[in-house]
Amino acid sequence: SIYRLCIMRKLPSVLARTLTSGTSASPGLPDMSKVRSELRDIVGASTNWRDHVQAMQERKALHTLLAKRQEDLPPRRMKDSYLEVILPLGSQPEIREKYLNVHNSVRFGRILEDLDSLGVLICYTHTKQEMQQRSPLSIVTALVDKINLCQKIIHPDCDIKFTGNVSWVGKTSMEVKMHMLQLHDGDYSPVLDATFVMVARDPENKRPAFVNPLIPESPEEEEIFKQGEMNKLKRIEFSTASLLKMAPTAEERNIVHDIFLNTLDTRQEGEGTVSFRSRKLPPNSVWMEDAKLKGLQICHPEERNIFNRIFGGFLMRKAFELGWATACSYGGSRPFIVSVDDIMFQKPVEVGSLLLLSGQVCYTEKKYIQVRVHSEVYNANTREHHTTNIFHFTFVSENEVPQVVPKTYG
């Protein structure tokens, strides 16, 4: 978490500049409802919950359209998947209510939902087959690598524009870079940059499926592609360095030991009788175990995605809202989201699940609060719990916050 705070940076994408033309309000661009209806058409998903099983059965026939190897698919360019989508908060006040929070700014959880839908559509655009309305691929979000914000407040009454394209491709996975801009005085100014990783699977969402290779066309694009490759290697390295598999580094051991010494109660009788058990809280601090919030969500059909599972954007919104509430109750003042990091989608969530969410403040520094939200599903029939996602959110509070202090090794 210390590491996460250090690497927050706000770099405007070169590609966003090279691909985006014109800055003033763009009439005629598709909006978010168009994005969602287009996704349903591409997959052949039914809008009626009861017909959904039938629609999924019909997808089985699309197996014949899958490529046997990646080389059989035509290569694509970054600009082939480039999309611009408008969120007309300024020009269509009737959609504003859904995006509004009590502080009269835009609900960030709603933006997460929109980014998730757009990311999937961008990938379908990259993998589109000529003459074929329906795609044999099931494209799902594997992880949110990073979302960095460069503005604290998102205004609820100015149009928003999303742009994005595929920035790197493996054999079955695609990295998508997206940008969000907001209209002020006739110009769009940047609000956030996001990097998502999507995976392609067969029509029944059971096995990985090949996707079109990506050909960079300029030195800038080469650079973006190379960065995507490095991101992938970093993720592999990070996943193998889990504490359950590897001991902490020397630097980490010193940090842990310092925290431990800081919490020892040395006021006990006599010399040398300091016990491991008697711990005291340093001044202006809070025990980590006292910085938690929990939530429960029943997963209704309304929240399903085109594959009849719970929509990833909905899970992100719910986790974000709990994370925000955790930061708010911890810091005692309004927190602002600065960065979203490393959201892993480990397991899909079925409609009808009980979703348990736990928010935990896991690191603090001056005004910054790092919150980890763990989500798991509970199956009432088998009485089993399964982790589905882990979310990391960085907030900045209006005032300096107390230091969070761990009590146990875990």
UniProtKB/TrEMBL annotation:
It is found in: Mitochondrion. It comes from the Eukaryota. Belongs to the acyl coenzyme A hydrolase family. It comes from Sylvia atricapilla (blackcap). Its main location: mitochondrion. Keywords: Hydrolase, Mitochondrion, Repeat, Serine esterase, Transit peptide. GO terms for molecular function: carboxylic ester hydrolase activity; fatty acyl-CoA hydrolase activity. This is ACOT9 thioesterase.
